[in-house]
Amino acid sequence: MAWKSLAHIELLVKSNLIHRIPSEIEGIPYNDSKKLPKFLCNQIAKYSISPTSCWDLAEKLATLDYKYAHGLLYGLDKNNYKNYRGLFLRTFGFQFKKIFDAYCNQKAYIGDIIFLMKKFAVFFDHSYFCGLAKRSKEFAIPAQYKMTIELTKLSFIEAWNFLIKEETLCAYFTLAYICLNEDYRKHMKWLNVSNIDITNIALKLQQHGKFGKKVSYIILDEYNTDAESDPLADTIYDDKFEKFKEYFQKGSNQNIKPKKNEIGKSIWDIPTSKKQEEGIIENLSQHIESGTILRILAFKNEIVALTEGFMDYNGGILYPQNVLYNGHPVPNNEACRIIKLYKRYGVKTGFGILRSINVDEKKYAILYKDFADFITQEDKELFQSLKEGDKVDFKIVTKTPHLYKVRIANSSLEGFVSFDDYNKQSSESRNAFKLTIAAKPTNEKAPIIFGNPIPHALKCDIEEVSYIENGLNKLFSSMELQNLDTKDKKVVEILLTDYPEIASEGNIEIINNEIKCRFQEDMIDSKEYLVKIQEYLNNQNFWISPRTYNGEDHLIIFNQEKMVIDIVREKNTFYLTKRMENANNTYQAQKTIEANKLTKMKIEGKNIKIYGTYDYIDNEYDAESTYLFIDRLNTFFKIKYDLQKKVNSVLYQSAQDFVNQTDFLKYQIDKENQRRKFEKEFKENCLTPISGEVQGESVAIKIKMTENDYNYLSGDIDEKESSLNEIRVNTVDNAGKIIDHCILKINVEGEYILHFIGSHKNIDDYLQNGIKLQGDANVKHLNIQVDAIKEFTFDEQSLFRDLIGENIEIPDTSVLNEFCFYNNNFNAVENNNNQPIAVKKAISLPKNGILLIQGPPGTGKTTTIVEIIMQLTKEKKKVLVCSQSHAAVGNIFEKLQKVGCDNILRIDDDNETIDTKYFNNHDYEMFLKNNLTLMDRLKAGKSKVSDLLEGFCYSNEKISQQYINLHKKIIQYYGENDSLDTPIVRKVLRELEKEAESISGSMLASQIYQSKSVILGTCIGVGMNFVLKNKTIHFDTIIVDEAAKANLAETIVPMQMGERFILVGDDNQLPPYVDQEEIKTMLADAKYKEKKEVTKEEMVASQNKSLFEYLHYHRHPLFPKENLVTLNYQYRMNPAIGDFISELFYDGKIKNGKGTEKQVVDIQEYPNPVTVIDTSSMKFNYEQRFNRSRRNKCEANYIKNEILPKIEPVLVNNPDLTLGIISPYTSQCEYIKSLISDKKIRESVHTIDSIQGMEFDIVIFSFVRSFSPNIDQKVGFVDDMKRLNVSLSRAKKKLIIIGNMNTLTRDSAHYESVGEGVKPLDVFKKLANMPTKISLRKTQLDKFNSLKIEEGTIFDNCTWVNSMHGCIAVTFTYTNENFTFRMRVSDRFLQERTTNETISLKYLGLGKDSKPYFGFSDIYEEVAYSANKVEFEGEVVSCNGNNIVIRIGQNCFYTKISEDRQSIPIKPNITYFFVKKQKNSVEINWNKCYEHFVNTHHIGDKIEGQVISKIRLNDNFVLYFVNCDGYTCGCISWEYIEEGSVHTFVYSKFDSVKKRITLKYFTKYDMQ
Predict the structure, then answer these.
(1) How far apart are CA 779 and CA 776, in angstroms?
(2) Range of lowest pLDDT (63-77, 161-175, 225-239, 1127-1141)
(3) What is the pLDDT of residue 1474?
(4) Residues 6 or more apart from 1205 whose CB is under 8 A from it?
(5) Radius of gyration over alpha carbons of the chain, in Å?
(6) How close are the terminal C-alpha atoms of the chain, in Å?
(7) Cis omega before residue 1117 (within 30°)?
(8) Are 151 and 99 in contact (CB under 8 A)?
């Protein structure tokens, strides 16, 4: 050797100095030292060099020339030297990374890289996986290179993310290996890896030579990502590349190296030249084929399909449940049909591998097929447009012995055509031709049949599949089908195949088969007994249940009278095992009934035939088939029962909000029922008779009672002030039996009046003997809500099931032809206005469809509702309109009347309609008599009957108008039918007159309801209505206004009466009312305390949620966006106010409609439409608590003294202008009212909860909340953005907001926002930054903050004077403004410096209290004088115990040190990083020292260090503490090193967790 002798190398190895070998050969080309690697391997084995030294040597050799390292590793691997790979796994991740990077950076031959990956990739990947340097106990390392590696989910995810961020060739090859190797791909489920991620990895690999490109093609092919764009996608790989791909997929432990005589030069052999390497790659690129394109060979019992073998699998196994579409199983019958087609025609198709299994020592792959991988949205639309007989362009994909598999041009839709059909069509056209579609499958997932009409066998399959699907749909609900287990589904499908009649029969629970059974020979079968038992059976119905006991088939038959019959089947005959038994008499019969009580099947007794032992039974009777049918039907009912339990469980979990609402309602019912225990007796001298005040009531009683008596009867046992003006009570006798139902009211004079329900009541007995009253439970409205929730959520065909089953129908507006609006304004709306869209979707809503119309403030919700109603009535639809509030119902009612909608009816909450409320018999009798007079006048030919109509009188004006309208209709009808037989009509009227006395309002109500097109009422009112609650009247459409303000139960009540549902509201405005105190009381109740899984917060959230909001934000699944329309143009507010509201609460999506620019009012002092008044700088601006509420006198007085005087003249000059003064707190409203003398303005003060639906020209809003930043307090429900939205959006022309912006914009004053929606802090910051904000009494703090001075700005020539509590007052001038601020300093500053002395300060920024903070500009002064926490660098001058002197620059600073790491000494003349605490003591910032050291040094660097102390570990080794660049490091050595001496050390390693630096002592020998 030219450089050194091999003997010298052997000497180094023998002396265990192999780490010097790289320096000996540095600069020598590899070609001059080719023998070295092999020689090294022999010497290493000869002298038993440790694997540690081997890896250290390989790393250093790789940096010189990777071929040295490659030869060494190759030789060690060949000799299997001391399992050196296993040792590497635990210790030498860094060395291997450098070795592999050296291979890649030096552009090593592909064969060399493959060798490295093949031999070391298993643990190479996992060294990365575990963070390279982590030791892990999870890896077991057997001998012979084989390793069993169990990955944790966490380590795998960390590893993947680490490799993605690494972005090196080494990392990307590792990622490729993970993607393709089977042992690792099973862990890919832990990662949320998309096809885009896989594609990115492949694209990165394509940038690294031809080898990288080939690996990238394998990845793209394996994961089916963008195969169309792959330039090799249409080529076929040869066996050579298939073996290469198989290697990647199987891993390095599989012995799959191909034989040379099979494919020539092995790709696993190391190429000897670049040319040879390129030749191999060129050869590989010619043929590529996916390893999962397979042919189905068999499909056994429609349960499992077997494919041909591939790779090292003996075959593939495909279950029907693994036939998928977009990750979801397709129907079992459809999956079976698809598998049959692929098997029948022998066509290959692509599969994915789920896992592998071993059966009889053979390896099989469990396969899946997902059609969504190949079907795009365009293909779906194309499929929908195709029909049988269409001709399409095509491309042949492949062929079988009998068929072509073809693909429709420019799509992924595939199908089959026979050779005969193909040849026939091609012969008919000499040029290019199109294939004819012979049969189209039910969905795009199945293949299309081209050519002649579909073969008869396939037709049968399709008809069978269609019939089975229809049967399943009849037997199960859609939600049950979604949750039906695949195995159970197969059982039912087989049942439908064998017994198709069960899908067409009405009630399959009734068994119509005859049960013919004999007496057994040992039983007495007298004719009399046979006749008697048969007569009994003929008159009874029984339950029937099949059971198997001791291997025998039994039929257990029993009835309500607990009579039990046990029938056993022996071969093809039924036998009665014993006489009929009564379960009341025998324990065994009772036990039998108990075991079979869950059966659903019934049989009529006449179908049970009892025969004597030797009586003749028809030979054609088949007992075995009868039993089999009953048994299989029983299996179906078991499946159905378990499925219903599963569905109910899913429903219960999804409907938790509804369950919570139900629990709260039941609690209120229990609470209300407690009122029946409250009784009060009143003597006769307390009772005074008065005339009745209610229509139809003749008499009532005035009772002399106290307020406490009234509260007691109302159930308010704490005798607090009751807010009820009337309560329901009962009169009872001494035994507590109810006599009369009554209503106890408080009239305007404050008197207590008892009204009797019903007319003509005799009260003499009460007046003579006194009266005893009992509180009555008013639970009717609560029970209605409980029943409505139950029906909505848990009924078989409930809307809720449709929602969570993704069955909500989407409206199709394309069905509307020549659509015309009633309101012409809809034709002139802005181009992108959603109002017309909302109307059209409402009209085209399908049955059981639901539409949400979100109407932000002023966007015309009511106008839209009226237009929808007019359109529906035009189509003869019946509409029910409801709302949570009377005001909203009244508003719609009035607008409908204005547009001429006459056929409407409004219901009030007293169970009376406007039409029937004042009905009495006398009016109706007069109506009939007047009709007789009218008929006589018309018959006499007197056409002018107007005078006659004016003479007809009734009890009140409204009833009179209604009857006059009916008279006019008679006149009109008579004119149109002049041939009418008047005597007959008069006779009918006479009969009606006689029966008039027996007619009541309730009898006519149903007819009136039926005759109306539109009925309006509150949500609870319509549910309690005596006509509507029976659901005898059904509505086509239910419209719920203000739906976001009604709770879940309130909205659901009217929805039980219709087919289509339109919810109109805005979930950004007021939510449903929640009584949190009552919820707290409920959860503390012993009965409900057991439900510990429901917290108060969860219960409040459920009560605070509307159905509108529930649907709007439903996530699993998502509510269809097509069923939500947001009205996006407001017509109420000035454009500036509209933009302000839109920006704050609707993300700027609400625009200003036509005419809003006219919404202006001129107030000179407040020229802008929106003004924000900030009280932050005002004195005494903090809030006060008052009566469990809050008020702010500062804001109230400002409104009274400053704002109102400027507004009142405008109100006087413009009387039509309206004013609203709004606040969230009742106490604030009451205080403002007490300050105002003007009655009209005083009546303009409102709380937020009372104003939804109202609007004002001018709005003044008071936030109230204002408190010191030093107080840990929150702003409470001022953070409720829905309430704030309602408040501010009431303003039409002018909006004035007053509040403390410092408080409202303080982070600590708000809870952390969670969930969706507007964030309060963002809103308040926008308010504070409004350009029209007015800051009252601007202070120097406001002036200073407005300058926006950058942190770090230096202020020279500052003067100071002493202040209090360790502070000084600092004065300086900036931009011609004088500023004075307080600053905390140390006692040392006050002792050493002089008042009014000039100092230099540095601006540190704003603190949490929004005040500026300052420090000294000089670092020494900042450390010595400031009270701030300061980080600095200084040299230790001396250290004696806890006393330390530190030099900072040219100055020394004496202080005390608090040191936690006492084991590490601190030495003089060494520079450290320190932290000065606020109490003027210091400590060393070891973290900063550590970071400084690590950032300025690299492993392997030689560093000068001073030994400062030592600890002896044992007899051989000593731990030395060495100071290197201000950090105390550790060095373990067996050599003696003198304390205080300075030596050269080598930076060996670091521990980032324990912040430790380890050095290696650089010996004299190392220096040589």
Answers:
(1) 9
(2) 225-239
(3) 87
(4) none
(5) 46
(6) 24
(7) yes
(8) no
